[in-house]
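Reading a protein record of the kind used here takes little practice once its layout is understood. The reader may check this reading against the record printed directly beneath this paragraph.
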Amino acid sequence: MKGIKIGEYLVNSCTMYIEPVEYANKIYSHIVEVEEEFLSPFKPLQNIKNSCDYFGVDYESRRKGTRLLIEYSRRLPIVIEPINKIYAFCTASPGDPKSIWIFPAHVKEYRRVSARQTLVIFRNNQSRIFPVSYSTFNTQMLRTSYLQTKLMQRVEFNNKKLFYLLHGPKSSTASESIEFYLEDPK
C-alpha cells in the first residue's frame, strides 16, 4: 500500500480525496493530498467527522446546516472549514463503505469514461478514474458549488449589515451648491 502510515488525519486545504482501502482485513483511508499520500486506520467518514470536530462543528451539525441551506437530503456535500473554503462531497451515501470523499477545490475537470466511471483531472495534473457515474459526480460538484454560494451570500449579507451598523448610511454629496436652487430666478 502506497502512502505514509499515520493515525488520525485532519483534512486540510491540500486534501484532494479520501478513499476506502482494505488493509489487514480492515477498512482504512487512503488519503491523497497535492504532494503526499497517507494511510489512516480510520474509515473515510471517520476522518471527515474528526476534521469537522477539529474545526469546531460536529459532522451532524454540518449535515443539518447543509440541508437547511440547499434543501437537499441525500449525499449532502459538507463544509468542513468555511474560512479556508474546505468543502467535500461523497460519491455514494456517506455510510457506504465504498464511498469516496472528493474535495472539489482541487478538481480541474472531469469526463465520462463509462456508465459507472468518471475520470477526474486535478489541478496538480494528477488524474484518477473513480467508480461513480458522470451524472452523479456532476450533480455532487453542482451541489457543492451551490452550498458554497449560499453560504458566501449569507456571509456577505452579514458583513454588509455590520458595515452599515458601524458606519451608518452612506451620504451622497451633490456637486452643486444648494444656494443655486434657493435663489430667486427673476
